[in-house]
From TrEMBL:
Domain of life from the UniProt record: Eukaryota
N-terminal signal peptide: 1-27
A Pfam family annotated for this UniProt entry: Arginase
Keywords, alphabetical: Hydrolase, Metal-binding, Signal
Molecular-function GO terms, alphabetical: agmatinase activity; metal ion binding
Source organism: Dichomitus squalens
Record-stated family: Belongs to the arginase family.
Identification of the protein by name: Arginase/deacetylase
Gene Ontology process terms (BP): putrescine biosynthetic process from arginine, via agmatine
Length: 405
């Protein structure tokens, strides 16, 4: 009965809004919100905590509604935190970070809207829900916040990538909210937050790898993609203008630079998964191995199943610190059309989920999900929903395995 009385007061406050009379509405967590109503004497103070508790919700943040279609849109309803401003001192275990960048693509742009699209795709998800298949509740093990997007300029790629590098480094340099038994695998022996970055085109992985390598040393990369992305820098073609000018880093060459900078684990302890796009020379295979990768093709799943793909990944990375980077075009465009360079014959969403679940126990120090371009998605938002589910799976891996020796 108390619930209906409180709810009726809330409805009345919404229906009888007046610009001339105001009261303070008491929000959950002792937060007060200004609301105008016609008759303050009749309705008094509205207690959102009481209403949410009666409805079965005990969350203290009133910014999130009780339904998937209202409230603030953060990734999996993570707490929004101004990580580079007023809330810089806040501690957390995982930061979700948007990287709205797509000016280093080679075909269709639009991934600058990816961070927002992936968050939209996660509207029905919650950090408090139990992943039945993985048998994990993320919020039981990790405090996850959403730091919003890095303000990356659109007129200078070098500056934009530097902005992301500095933002990522700032997040990684702090101490995590929680600590775990055992010695941290970080070079300084401390427990640092982990970052899940929502891209953005795949070029963003280079500055992100610089950050994790500064904390953990060279890392093994699990690269889900239809393309190798280890191309050497090339000179401009198509005319006599600037014939010696080298094309800057882009979404197909960032691993070349990562190898040159010593960010990748040695001894071919890195792996591409889902490769199927054509290449323009046989030398690219030799380069790819020289840069530290082994390859698992998309077609391999027909022969060895998802279990065989998992075995190939585990054999490659061993017990090294792992960074996961996933280009959404690793999924078949029939299930994930919203991307810049789609290739037919990709994994199904179920196969990706099973492969990720099979990586339980790996020490995932960071991850990104890239190349989601919502402008090419269906009305059903299937690509954005797929990307959000992948993000949930990656957070589940982080929740299951602390970064200890």
């Amino acid at each position: 009965m108390a619930f209906f009385e409180s709810l009726s007061r809330l409805v009345a406050a919404v229906l009888f809004v007046s610009p001339f009379s105001h009261i303070l509405v008491q929000g959950a967590g002792n937060v007060e919100y200004p609301v105008g109503i016609a008759n303050t004497a009749a309705y008094g103070t509205i207690n959102f905590t009481e209403i949410f508790a009666a409805y079965g919700h005990d969350k203290s943040n009133v910014a999130f509604g009780t339904s998937a279609y209202n409230g603030l849109t953060t990734f999996m309803r993570a707490l929004p935190v101004r990580c580079f401003g007023a809330d810089a001192a806040t501690k957390y275990d995982v930061a979700v970070l948007g990287a709205p960048f797509d000016t280093a693509t080679s075909y269709r742009p639009g991934a600058r809207f990816g961070p927002n699209g992936i968050r939209q795709g996660s509207r029905r998800m919650s950090l408090d829900s139990i992943n039945v298949a993985a048998k994990i509740r993320i919020s039981d093990e990790l405090d996850v916040v959403d730091c919003g997007d890095v303000p990356m300029v659109t007129t200078d790629n070098k500056v934009a990538l530097r902005q992301l590098e500095l933002a990522n480094a700032a997040l990684l340099s702090g101490s995590s909210l929680r600590t775990w038994e055992g010695k941290s695998i970080a070079k300084d022996g401390k427990f640092h937050p982990r970052v899940l970055t929502l891209g953005g085109d795949h070029t963003i992985t280079l500055p992100l790898l610089r950050g994790v390598a500064s904390i953990y040393g060279p890392v093994s990369v699990i690269h889900f993609d239809s393309h190798l992305d280890t191309s050497r820098p090339r000179k401009l073609a198509g005319g006599p203008w600037l014939p010696d000018e080298v094309v800057p880093v882009g979404h197909g060459s960032y691993f070349y630079y990562a190898h040159k900078e010593g960010l990748l684990a040695p001894d071919n302890a890195n792996i591409h998964v889902g490769i199927r796009a054509p290449i323009d020379s046989w030398e690219k295979y030799a380069d790819d191995r020289a840069f530290g990768f082994v390859i698992s093709h998309a077609e391999d799943v027909e022969e060895v199943g998802w279990q065989g793909i998992v075995k190939a990944i585990r054999d490659a990375v061993g017990d090294n610190p792992v960074y996961i980077t996933l280009d959404i075009d690793v999924i078949d465009p029939g299930m994930a059309p919203a991307t810049g360079t789609p290739e037919i014959g990709g994994f199904t969403t179920r196969e990706i989920k099973k492969i990720l679940q099979g990586l339980s126990g790996l020490k995932v120090v960071g991850a990104d999900i890239v190349e989601v371009a919502p402008g090419y998605d269906s009305q059903d938002e299937i690509t954005q929903i797929a990307a959000a589910n992948i993000g949930r799976g990656i957070l589940g891996l982080m929740a299951k395995t602390p970064l200890t020796e």
